[in-house]
């Protein structure tokens, strides 16, 4: 499978998340304060909550419902109640296009 365009880079606001879906895979896409774009699984592993509705702080995305924060780089939860990581997807920027392949996860 190849990467799909999910949005324009100019559509992203710094320190905010948007929800996208690629081939049925929900993802939260974030432009962090350093200008880096991240894509992680959009569903909190503690509850069935969209992480894109959460809060970005540095390189973390916090679930609004119960406060679990996930690393945008590794997908690992940084505090309870979540203890399972979310997937992290490789992001490619081509011009103003943000591309993600849902079959390629970062390790």
Automatic annotation (TrEMBL):
Keywords: 2Fe-2S, Iron, Iron-sulfur, Metal-binding. Pfam families: Rieske. Residues 4-100 form the Rieske domain. It comes from the Bacteria. InterPro entries: Rieske_2Fe-2S, Rieske_2Fe-2S_sf. CDD domains: Rieske_RO_ferredoxin. This is Non-heme iron oxygenase ferredoxin subunit. It comes from Microbacterium alkaliflavum.
